[in-house]
Design brief:
Blueprint: E1 4-8, H1 12-24, E2 28-33, H2 36-45, E3 50-53, H3 63-73, E4 77-82, E5 97-100, H4 105-119, E6 131-133
Parallel strand pairs: 1-2, 1-3, 3-4, 4-5
Antiparallel strand pairs: 5-6
Length: 135
């Protein structure tokens, strides 16, 4: 299942690795951005299926509000990827869950697959262990 994915990550090496992993899986990476405003601009101009959102971006801790906005108001499926999962422990409206960084290729693959199956309304038996779901 191919998807249009937006990577929102301010660490260039992490963003590049994510891009390679997602493209190897057959997905289209629409853009890789490092701040909330650029992410909003890209989302306004493109159809996005899934956004992988870091909490701390180059413009500060703007990822939580950005994830909420993308999920609730733009219909994007949102997964947070952060080294600080406690910041979203109670969940964020309109988003699915969080993957703790650092992570590996398999964790990204299984979390993205899970999120895309949920987006399409396909049956999902359980979430991968690397993905902490929000209620």
């Amino acid at each position: 299942m191919t998807a249009r994915i937006l990577i929102i990550e301010d660490e260039a090496l992490v963003a590049m690795e994510l891009r390679f992993v997602l493209e190897d899986l057959g997905h289209q990476v629409v853009a890789t951005v490092s701040d909330a405003q650029t992410a909003r601009d890209v989302a306004a101009e493109n159809e996005i299926d899934l956004a992988l959102v870091d909490i701390h971006l180059s413009d500060g801790a703007t990822g939580i509000e950005l994830g909420r906005e993308l999920g609730q108001y733009r219909g994007v499926t949102v997964l947070f990827m952060t080294a600080n999962p406690g910041m979203v422990r109670d969940g964020v409206a309109g988003t699915i869950g969080v993957i703790t960084k650092p992570t590996d290729e398999r964790a990204v693959q299984t979390a993205v697959d899970y999120a895309l199956r949920r987006r399409k309304g396909a049956p999902v038996d359980y979430a991968p262990p690397e993905l902490q779901l929000f209620a």
